[in-house]
Amino acid sequence: MHMTAGFLVGALVGLTGVGGGALMTPLLVLMFGVNPKTAVGTDLLFAAITKTVGSTVHGWRDTVDWRIFRRLAAGSIPAALLSVIALQWVGEIGAHAERVIIAFLGCMLILTAFAALFQKRLVRFARRGGGRDDRRALLPTVMLGAFIGVAVSISSVGAGAIGVTALLMLYPRLPVSRIVGTDIVHAVPLALVAGSGHWLYGDVDPELLVSLLMGSIPGVIIGSLLSSRAPDHLLRPALAAVLLLSGVKLLIH
User: Fold this and answer.
1) What gap in Å lies between CA 142 and CA 135, rounded to an integer?
2) Range of lowest pLDDT (85-94, 108-117, 164-173, 204-213)
3) Which of 75, 117, 182, 193 is the most buried (most CB within 10 A)?
C-alpha cells in the first residue's frame, strides 16, 4: 500500500510539479493513521529525494534563476530551522503540537488548492500590472522564502503551487519554465534541511520512507516523461479538488 501511494504521488509530482507534501502528508495521516509530526518529517525527506529525481528528468537545471534561488533560500532556510525547533518545543510542553500541525496542514492544503486552480488568472493579472522591478522584488522574495520555510517545516506543504504562483506574480516577465525550475530546485535543499531537523528529533520513520521511495521514484520518472502530453486543463482542477477535500477533511478531523 505504501509503495502504491508513493508511486501515485510521485507520478503527480512528475506531471504537475505539485503534490509531494500536499498529497503525501494528508494521505499518511488520514489513510494510514501516521502521527502528524512523523508524517511531516518522513514526507519532507520523501519530497526532497523524489523532486531531485524529477528535476533531473525534466532537465530544469538549465532553467534555474540562481539569483531568485539565493533570495528564497536567504528567507526559507533560517525560517525552516527555527520552525522545527519551535515545533519540538510545542510538542514537549503538551499535546497541542498534533492539533497545530493538523490545523496548519488543512489551511495550507486549501490555500494550495486555490493557488493551483487560479494560478493562470493571477499571473495574467500580475502581467497586466507590469510587475515589480528587480530591486523592489528582493524583500518580497526573501519574505516569501521565510513563509515557505515555516509552512514546509510545519506541514510539508507550500513550496509547490503557492511558491510558483507567488514567484510568477513577483517576476511576471520571466518564462514560466524558469520560475518552475527555480522553485523545484529551491524545494530540494529546503526539504532536506527541514527533514533533517525532524530526523534529529526522531520524527522520521525510515522503513516508511524507503517503502514510499520504492514507489515514488519510478512514478516521478514516468510522470515527468508524460508531462508534456498531460492535459493541464483536466489535471489542474482534479488536483485542486483533491487538495481542497483533503484540507477540509483534516480541519474537520
Assistant:
1) 12
2) 85-94
3) 182
